[in-house]
Write a structure and sequence with these properties.
The chain contains three helices and no strands. With 64 residues, it is mainly α. It has a domain of 41 residues. Helix 1 packs antiparallel against helix 2 and helix 2 crosses helix 3. The chain starts with a helix and ends in a 12-residue tail after the last helix.
Length: 64
């Protein structure tokens, strides 16, 4: 029973940190909404793929 609880806590911790990173990726693409954190956290791989597929809002601004 204790191992199940520890495994659940480990999965939640990894999901949390992954969702924070995917929210950061969405912010880099110009999408500054907290919903991308929740999509990645609750949606798992589907939410992460959604963030990966987001178009960049600042695609026209090229910096060199």
């Amino acid at each position: 029973m204790v191992l199940h609880i520890l495994a659940l806590l480990a999965v939640l911790a990894v999901s949390y940190f992954a969702a924070v990173e995917f929210q950061s990726i969405a912010a880099m693409k110009g999408h500054n909404d907290k919903k991308y954190f929740w999509w990645s956290f609750l949606g798992g791989a589907i939410g992460m793929l959604m963030v990966i597929a987001l178009p960049g809002r600042n695609a026209g601004a090229h910096t060199e």
